[in-house]
Specification:
CATH topology: Rossmann fold
Number of helices: 5
Strand order of the largest sheet: 3-7-6-4-8
Number of strands: 8
Strand content: 25-35%
Distance between the termini: 5 Å
Helix content: 25-40%
Radius of gyration: 16 Å
Shape: globular
Number of domains: 1
């Protein structure tokens, strides 16, 4: 069975459900997404997790209506503001980055399925200024900003379940007056990305 996690079911409206895939609405933000994903993985044995839905796109990387397969995802609000390492006791380290399963990214690396490959950032705060957008762009060189990506991928990794993040771009990150907001375009791109991925998937994962 495949678990598909979205913040709101409307983000995948139009997705043709399949008997081997379960769609779970987590709620908005990293805390809700982590709880919902961990709970679903504890209750049912899933062999693959997909985090899907709309996201903001960074200028010069993607456009509204594009879709992105995320290679790696950073949680921007953990750790020091300046990005330097914390001096923690007993050699403890923060988990601030998680990756999509490389096997699941192979079709995108070969130029198949019609989605861009890119880096993602997860933030509990939606970026609404060009200043913060520029800061995130400089620090992470991301293509997408979401509120759940890191949480879903991290929960899947803790459960040792392969996972991938697929996003449809609904707006540009930064100033809300010029962000080209289009929920329908982002939703449609997310649905196309999930459909294409599942159509191409070796159902041995299911």
């Amino acid at each position: 069975m495949i678990l598909i996690v979205c913040a709101l079911r409307e983000e995948l409206s139009g997705f043709a459900e399949r008997p081997y895939a379960t769609v779970v609405q987590s709620g908005i933000g990293p805390v809700e997404a982590a709880i919902a994903t961990a709970r679903a993985l504890a209750v049912t044995r899933y062999t693959l997790v997909i985090n899907a839905g709309i996201a903001g796109g960074f200028r010069d990387h993607v456009s509204v209506g594009d879709s992105v397969a995320v290679i790696e995802e950073y949680y921007v609000e953990i750790g020091r503001e300046d990005g330097l390492e914390l001096d923690l006791p007993s050699g403890a380290m923060l988990d601030e980055k998680v990756i999509s399963d490389p096997r699941l990214l192979s079709p995108y690396k070969e130029g198949l399925l019609g989605s861009h490959l890119g880096i993602g950032v997860t933030s509990a705060t939606v970026t609404t200024s060009d200043l913060r957008a520029a800061h995130l762009a400089k620090r992470f060189n991301p293509s997408v900003e979401s509120m759940e990506g890191f949480a879903v991928l991290r929960a899947a990794r803790r459960a040792s379940v392969p996972a991938i993040e697929l996003r449809g771009i609904s707006n540009l990150v930064g100033n809300r007056a010029s962000n080209e907001w289009d929920f329908n375009a982002g939703r449609d791109a997310a649905v196309r990305a999930v459909d294409a991925f599942l159509d191409n998937l070796d159902l041995g994962f299911a």
